[in-house]
Amino acid sequence: MSNTPTGEIYRIDWLPGTDVLHGTCHCGREHTAQDPIEMWEWMLAHPQGHEVATDD
Asked: 49: alpha, beta or left, given left = phi > 0 and alpha = psi -120 to 50?
């Protein structure tokens, strides 16, 4: 892992009174999850997983 700053900001907030985490990726996309591992995997998989869900 490099120590070079990327300028990318990832933010995860805990929604008080719930078990829900709300994440905002550096690209502006948002995601909610109860599992912190799921949240970090979503963020670090950028740009995969950032597509808008569609109903098939």
From this structure: left
